Amino acid sequence: xxxxxxxxxxxxxxxxxxxxxxxxxxxxxxxxxxxxxxxxxxxxxxxxxxxxxxxxxxxxxxxxxxxxxxxxxxxxxxxxxxxxxxxxxxxxxxxxxxxxxxxxxxxxxxxxxxxxxxxxxxxxxxxxxxxxxxxxxxxxxxxxxxxxxxxxxxxxxxxxxxxxxxxxxxxxxxxxxxxxxxxxxxxxxxxxxxxxxxxxxxxxxxxxxxxxxxxxxxxxxxxxxxxxxxxxxxxxxxxxxxxxxxxxxxxxxxxxxxxxxxxxxxxxxxxxxxxxxxxxxxxxxxxxxxxxxxxxxxxxxxxx
Length: 304
Description:
Blueprint: E1 12-18, H1 24-35, E2 40-42, E3 51-58, H2 65-69, E4 73-81, E5 83-85, E6 94-97, H3 105-111, E7 117-121, E8 130-131, E9 134-135, H4 136-141, E10 151-164, E11 167-174, H5 180-190, E12 195-205, E13 208-209, H6 216-225, H7 227-231, E14 246-249, H8 251-258, E15 272-278, E16 283-289, E17 295-300
Parallel strand pairs: 3-12, 14-15
Antiparallel strand pairs: 1-3, 2-3, 4-11, 4-12, 5-6, 7-10, 8-9, 10-11, 12-13, 15-16, 16-17
């Protein structure tokens, strides 16, 4: 581990292709050490079993990480029919087995629309949701199960991409807070044979797509060339807010916003979240349009 004095102020976003068998925090710490970064955080945990897109926010980019957590996600998931496990995925013990050979493709296609749109999900016990201050997964490891309230989530698209025996390859596009393990289990129950997640890969998070991901090996190779090569791989923090409208501010408007005061901006959107920029297009931070039409600062980037 590097001494504190050697750590650097790094700013930007890395879109990591998280490998299998490591926690999201473990992956974050590995990349953080490569950058010798002072401050970093990940957005939206992936289980050790899962791979794929894990945005890592460095330095001031952590100010936009909450907005990535709120964003929609896309996944490729392999669902194994006929086996229910303690965790809803391949890491758990099989607790029920049923013959899935008679499940037809037509039956699968028939039930998938039931899980599309706004649906209710009961969060799994193996999740980070807290019950009386304790994460559910810690209770689950102690063999304790507690009642969980259903949550409303949205599945925008659910498609069967392929099938090989009892293994289904599905595409899922969903809102934040959707548990793909629960989705797989519920599909298995609807088919009458049970199911669990055999493999899971996240392919999109908010504006970020799979083709933008970087492997740990790519980052390690860049690190061998020096910090300049590594830093060249960082995305600017405002790329996380690509779909948000820009509001450009005059020097006076920017001054008052920095003091925490809302301002009237001609031709600004009438509602919602906005990206704040100076007249020369530098990113200032995040704002929200108030009911009276003024733009209020919410999270400003330091050093501007």
